[in-house]
Design goal:
Double Stranded RNA Binding Domain, three-stranded antiparallel sheet, 5 helices, about 15% strand
Length: about 190
């Protein structure tokens, strides 16, 4: 059994329940801030990230990360629309620690601030294709694991039934032997 199979078998919730992609927003495990993912180790199921707000660096199992980040999960933090101008964000101001739309930029309040242009960080088509391939791979893995789980459950139930039947037959044999022994003793006594 691979480590990935073991990882998902340990979980009490299904992979589908854990990852409702439309409802999952990635954030720090200690606060609702965005994170920078530094590495994901698939073999060990580990994630390493830094918090954009506090810059603390964390490394933990992916399962633990997902469970912990749920406490601070905030749908609005990953919204890509400016609340003040109702326009899509264009960049992220590092000095102010917030996203900016074109209207925010035109205000001149961030003119000398260090900024990241968001489009530079968007994945290209090749990266999106790789991600979708990974998603399909893991969905197939989940499906296979669920099938294996059903097969193993049936096998175990059959073995349990056989063991119960065997015990029942042995108990009945013992009871018959006791009755035969009592009958023989009664005949001897007569």
């Amino acid at each position: 059994m691979s480590e990935e199979e073991g990882y998902f078998q340990d979980s009490h919730e299904s992979f589908g329940d854990m990852f409702k992609l439309n409802e999952l927003y990635y954030n720090c495990t200690e606060c609702p801030s965005h994170i920078d993912i530094l590495s994901i180790n698939e073999k060990e199921s580990m994630i390493e990230f830094t918090c954009k707000n506090t810059n603390h660096r964390m490394k933990m199992p992916i399962k633990e990360y997902i469970n912990k980040m749920k406490y601070f999960n905030n749908k609005n933090i990953n919204d890509d629309t400016c609340k003040n101008h109702n326009k899509k964000y264009e960049c992220y101001c590092i000095d102010c620690n917030k996203h900016l739309c074109k209207s925010c930029l035109k205000s001149g309040n961030h003119i000398n601030h260090k900024k990241y242009i968001l489009i530079e960080f968007e994945p290209n088509e090749k990266q999106v294709k790789e991600i979708l391939n990974k998603i399909n791979y893991y969905e197939n893995q989940i499906e296979n694991l669920e099938k294996q789980k059903l097969i193993k459950t049936k096998e175990l139930n059959n073995k349990l039934k056989e063991a119960k039947d065997k015990l029942k037959m042995e108990k009945e044999k013992d009871e018959i032997n006791i009755i035969i022994k009592e009958n023989n003793e009664n005949k001897n006594n007569l």
